[in-house]
Specification:
The chain is an alpha+beta fold. The chain is built from 4 helices and 12 strands. The chain folds into 2 domains: 35-113; 120-293, Beta Barrel (Thrombin, subunit H), CATH 2.40.10.340.
């Protein structure tokens, strides 16, 4: 018996020390009492510490949660940025495809409403020297292209083929100073010549008789008397009309219907010498004589 008590004396002592206050707590814990001076002093000292400790713990917890949330938001934001870039690339590709489809539909509409074997071509080069103002197309003699053929888009005329190889051809633009296109005012049928001014700028409308009715905004179309362009193709709009007080002709400019600096897809017309009616030939001969007599 004594041996057993001796062997477990530490455990018995600790148990007794724990049971005594526990018993006192059970005996008096149910009886409420007012806090004494010591209780109030301890509470006064520990309350600020408890609040400060609670604030620190809450701040650390809130900061950690904020860090975790911010890290998650950053990752989501990076994913959204990547997704947005991919969507923008797709939108650009779809926009480019839609623009190309619009151009090709315009060319197709023209080809379906006009007789002849038009050749669709794409711009693959621009003359860097600027003399002459020309572009290079991806069609040549192997595709049936001939020197002198007219080049157009669904919006209007572009120029004339001046050089042909097996796989490519060069086109002098209507804005080149060496380009002279027989035109007429659509409203009045007055005939004139549209000459390139160079630099991709407006055309010069020449040999419009001073007595002819020409107004700002008049539509200028091809006359079909130069053996290059068929009649009725859009050239542009007349601007800066000036009726001189002397001389046989008035002056004006033409804003081209086709922006030759932004060409991508064109049509090459078959080389046909368009025969003008007898009255057209007479007017052409008369205009030619007037040019020789003019200043």
């Amino acid at each position: 018996m004594f041996a057993l008590l001796k062997r477990y004396r530490e455990l018995i002592v600790v148990s007794a020390l724990l049971l005594v206050p526990f018993g006192l707590f059970l005996a008096h814990g149910t009886v409420p009492r007012e806090p004494n001076f010591v209780d109030r002093t301890v509470l006064a000292i520990t309350a600020p510490l408890e609040r400060a400790l609670g604030f620190c713990v809450d701040s650390v917890v809130a900061g950690w949660k904020g860090y975790v949330d911010l890290r998650g938001v950053r990752e989501k934001n990076q994913a959204l940025v990547r997704e947005n870039a991919e969507l923008l690339d797709k939108v650009r590709a779809l926009t480019e495809a839609e623009l190309e489809n619009q151009r090709l539909r315009g060319l197709l509409d023209y080809a379906q409403t006009h007789e002849g074997r038009e050749i669709a071509a794409r711009v693959i080069g621009v003359n860097p020297a600027g003399t002459p103002l020309s572009i290079r197309l991806d069609r040549g003699s192997d595709d049936g292209v001939e020197k002198g053929a007219a080049v157009i888009t669904h919006a209007g005329i572009v120029g004339q083929v001046i050089r042909v190889t097996g796989r490519t051809c060069d086109v002098m633009l209507l804005t080149d100073p060496n380009s002279h296109t027989a035109v007429m005012v659509q409203r009045t049928r007055s005939r004139a010549t549209a000459t390139g001014a160079g630099g991709g700028q407006n055309l010069i409308l020449e040999y419009v008789r001073r007595t002819d009715d020409l107004k700002e905004g008049d539509t200028i179309v091809t006359a079909g008397t130069d053996g290059v362009f068929p009649p009725g193709l859009l050239v542009g709009k007349a601007i800066d009309v000036v009726k001189k007080s002397a001389g046989m002709f008035q002056s004006a400019e033409v804003v081209p219907a086709v922006d030759t600096t932004r060409l991508e897809d064109v049509l090459i017309l078959p080389l046909v010498h368009w025969e003008a009616p007898a009255e057209t030939a007479a007017v052409t001969a008369r205009d030619g004589g007037a040019r020789e007599a003019g200043p």
